[in-house]
Prior knowledge:
Elements: E1 2-3, H1 10-18, E2 27-31, H2 39-47, E3 53-57, H3 63-71, E4 79-81, E5 88-89, H4 93-103, E6 109-111, E7 114-118, E8 124-126, E9 146-149, E10 152-155, H5 158-167, E11 177-180, H6 181-186, H7 196-206, E12 211-214, E13 219-223, H8 235-254, H9 262-286, H10 291-304, H11 309-337
Helix pairs in contact: 5-7, 5-9, 8-9, 9-10, 10-11
Amino acid sequence: MPIYNRRNFLKQAFQSLHQQTFQNWKLVVVDDGSTDDPLVELRSLANQTLQPVTYLKKNNGGPGSARAAGQKLICNEEFVAFFDSDDYWLPDYLQALIGELERIQEMDWVYCPCRRVDHESGKTLNESTFFDEVSNKPLGFRRLDHLRDGHTHLITNNNELVLMQLKEPINAGFQNSVFRATLINEIEIPYYRIGEDRYFLVAALLKGFRVGYINDVHVIYNVHDENISDTNLKKNDVEKAVLVQTELCRALRGIKRLTKIRPILTEVDHQVANIRFWLIGYNYYWQNGFVGKALYTMLKVLIGEPKNLRFIKTFLVSIIKAPIQYLACCKRSSDTHG
């Protein structure tokens, strides 16, 4: 369980673990350089816990590096699960997923959907992350070829799942997955601050590990100010958001070192270009009034994608509208502070 300034969530996290119907577990807590002094609270909660609790503190490096540090302490276990301290496992989570791994010996990784909940109000935002939050239609990965074995859908074509993961979410994150330790011991978690789960999944699939999923919701994903991503940003948040997406691009480019399969390499380049042009260039910079940075970012992407008609059209229109966009953003800023 990686933690970073999550002291207020620790009681809920331990409550979730105590309520698991599967109780044969050990907990490794990796403190990623917290500044909210969680150790006193952790000791109190650990003293109320029958299972072994190990605490490791390290310098801040992001969730990827925290999980990688914990990875070294769990290599002798049979199954491994990563618990995000601000989420909540429903009581049958471990029992359900470990049970499927025990039953289906050829499966190495099993995951389930989350229910997304607004932490402050308790309102459900998405009943199941296997369905689109807006249209409520099933996500595309559920249409991929698979074998049905009881509750589990075992993916049969790993390369198809890699391409799907690059194109649209399949929502197989660390927080809603259980792994065989043989998989965890073979693939090192990268030290990315974002996108480490995407890289890890692709690496596992390309090495031939088998992935399956069940449709039952067993995880509550709490949405709060510290984990939500928003395109309508304040100006002082824009550069932070750009850094996050730049790190995601780095994680995606890292996938190119894992394979020589041309469709996968092409899709990685396509996704990186889209993130840089649309998310960073247009949504973050252009929409928030950083006109010069927006045009510069779009142009750099366009140089590498000179035949992309949507990029060309948007870039040319943006050049024409640049003076108006700049003045409009200045007016919005003046009205906000006036």
